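A quick aside before the break. I want you to see a complete sequence-to-structure record at least once, exactly as it would be stored in a machine-readable document. Don't worry about memorizing anything.
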Amino acid sequence: MNDLSLVRNFCIIAHIDHGKSTLADRMLELTKTVEQRNMKEQLLDSMDLERERGITIKAHPVTMKYTAKDGKEYTFNLIDTPGHVDFSYEVSRSLQACEGAILVVDAAQGVEAQTVSNTYLAVENKLAIIPVLNKVEMPNADVDEVSQQIEDILAIEATDALQVSAKTGLGVKAVLEAVVERFPPPPPGKDSFTRALVFDSKYDAYRGVVVYMRVFSGRLTAGDRVQVMSTGENYEIKEVGVFTPEMSKRNALEEGSVGYVIANIKDASEIKIGDTLTLSKAPASDALPGFKEIHPMVFSGIYPVETSDYEKLGSSMDKLRLNDASFSFQAESSIALGFGFRCGFLGLLHMEIIMERLRREFNLDIISSYPNVVYRIIMKSGAVEEIDNPMYLPDLSVIERIEEPMINATIICPTDYLGEMMKLIMDRRGDIVKTDSIDGRRVMLTCHMPLNEVLLDFYDKLKTISRGYASMDYEYSDYQAADLVRMDVMIHGEVVDAFSSILHRTKAEFRGRQMCKSLLDVIPRQAFAVALQAAVGGKIIARETVRAYRKDVTAKCYGGDISRKRKLLERQKEGKKKLKKIGKVNIPQEAFIAVLKTNTQG
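That is the input. The structure line, written in tokens, reads:
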């Protein structure tokens, strides 16, 4: 039987780039979980995308053995979590499987926006927290100042904060000792039933669904039949094991442990994140508290460039959804782009990562339509509708008002850039609720602003203004009425649905001009002039014209009577008029890609 007093389940939480994954590397080295010859930087960031961008996207579990000062051997189950705001859902799921959290704060940069939100998540989950000041070897590290920030902003006692350098390994042993001393062991199960919480899963082409779980009570062994409590479906366990960090087979998963289960689960949709597994022969009466349902906030259409890839795109998305419960999709079709899927994401980085994973892991060539948020439409009849696609916006004459989702954003930036930062927030229709001074050099702005305004290029602008020093975190707040309109883009008089968007009336003209200019560069010239127009409610607000080719019809006239040339030119003019009435403009796929790219990059 597993001795629970010798088990510690914990995670590492921090802002991006504060050194979570590097600290995890040093722990793996010190506990000899990974041999020196197999060691590489950010070992737990196994995805190519994570290694390239230097960010953690998925939470990664790993089991380590550590012999403490007291001579006892402890089992550590560590989960390395992401730091970016779009992946805070990954963090919240990981925290459910832990009893403690190591809070890493960069001793040079201090408390940042995601440090604040991740700490609140840990406190909500009633976890024990060990503050760790990382990068103390840096010449600009200010340990006293940052300790003060931890106490003032996060209300965490920082007198016993550990000082480490994850890069050099300084002080990491003290962190492992603190895990033993300050984190509680897993509590024993409330009853004799077996219950395990599913906190993640992935799809393996050869073995089906691999389920990541934390066993809260009882034990699971290969050969056991288990039941998924939400669906009542039964499966036989083929293999159980732990992560070291590779999947490593074990005879059983005991109470308090974190590991994986491979059962005969063939389809991605058969198991949900947050489900409880229990033994079929003695099922538990009630499930473990799961996770709150996550609602996507950003929607965009994803279409295959080659229409023959439609089926492949659907099955690839199914497999991705298994590994990422916050991603949702359903089939849709567009006049311009053909058949595709309407997809929901937590934010723009999340959307970018999903698209990149579809391209790399499934070798797909895809294009996305303009990103939109979910608008709430209140009709004059009193009915309420929610739409995420501008094409479904009802006629304005039957609408009482349109409400858009708002966010509460926390922005931490150097005092020198405060004026420009406030201007940026106000340009994006945001209200600054309060301003707090963190230390002499930085301020924390709390503001209330529309999610739609943050979608496209807000984060880039924020970094540009602050020379890369500002950080931002946000949470969803409420819905608020606004003067919103649908802007359509027409090519030769026909509305192109892929370019339609809902935006604030004051921004429509600028966005319309931007769209028409982008199209002018990419639409090939035709034998007749092509009008590119942006319209709001039938009123044209911007226009560009793709000029017609002019064939030299008078080339064969050598000298002679001018009236002959005129006749030929008149005939050409008539022909162009007729062509303009019946001609169709074929928009190349590259044009869509170019325009949607320029607009998603702002």
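Two observations worth writing down. The longest strand covers residues 399-414. The chain has a mean pLDDT of 78. We'll return to this after the break.
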